[in-house]
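Field reference: "sequence" (input) and "structure" (output). Example, Glycosyltransferase family 2 protein:
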Amino acid sequence: MLSVIIANHNYAHFLRQAIDSALALDWPNIEVIVVDDGSTDGSHAIIKSYGDKIRGELLPKSTQLDVRNHGFAISKGGIVSFLDSDDLLDPQIMRRAMAVWGDGVSKVQVQMGTIDADGRNLNSDFPRYQSAPTADECRTWILTTSSYPTPPGSGNLYARWFLERIFPLDHSCGDATDSCCVTAAPLLGDVVTIVDVLASYRVHGNNLGAMADLQPRRLHRQIVRAQQRFDYMTRIAGVAGLKVSAPGPQLSLHYLMYRTASYRIAPEEHPLRGDSSLNIVRDAFAAVCRPQGIGVAAKLTVFVWICAVLCSPRSLSEWLMRVRFDSQYRAVQKAKLTRATAS
């Protein structure tokens, strides 16, 4: 059985689409569980409208962790999907996952396509792979750089036996409920990757990782979260008898982009005391030399981006950051470039 667990808080304008995408999955044995976290926007009525097609759980306002823990505790499936209430699943995701599932698999991950608040395709798929990484590669990359190419929550299907080893979740990885799962997966089992878009990630102003306005507090949160993930990864690796060689999150190119933006936007508020442009460039150079599931061209692009953000005039620096962190803005700029090239 596949359990699709949808955690929701005041996302009534997206919730029905998420539920419908779960109910439309091409798989014979599915349970859809919607756990509402004290919504006040009409979400309850939407949940109740499905009757016995889904299991609705209406909780008082609590935390994302409590909601995720509750949903998992009442689920029954041997495979579990944590679908964000603003995201969508492709009807074929379960069949594609089961075609590659095997003994010892902790999760199957897929690529996600980005859509805007109205469901329009933003033509930006992620993660980007040269080829499907092996389970051993994912394990090696996280142990040596603290990261590996992984989608956020909705792009993953987890084995129940794996989740039972880490649930109930606590605040080890902060308030990001996906972090514990994606961090532990390559350490306690095998991660299998499908290089195809089988889920949709909705980009809008209320995403936890939304960066459209480049607010320092959101950038700071990413930096703190990266350190929390590293500490959690170190603990889980110890349980699994694996050796961590990464000195910290500073060898992750993904993390370094947030660190660069945080330092450039508001150096006086930057959470890493004593940090400098020189330190960031030095760490970025070391990261480029470490395999982490990113091609050489992409690594060099990130390195040049980091150097340009740190050294460019403020206006150009902010433009570079918006192009990197804001999918909607990036789509607009890409369209402008296409029109200019065609004319």
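The radius of gyration is 20 Å.
The chain has two domains: 2-202, 216-342.
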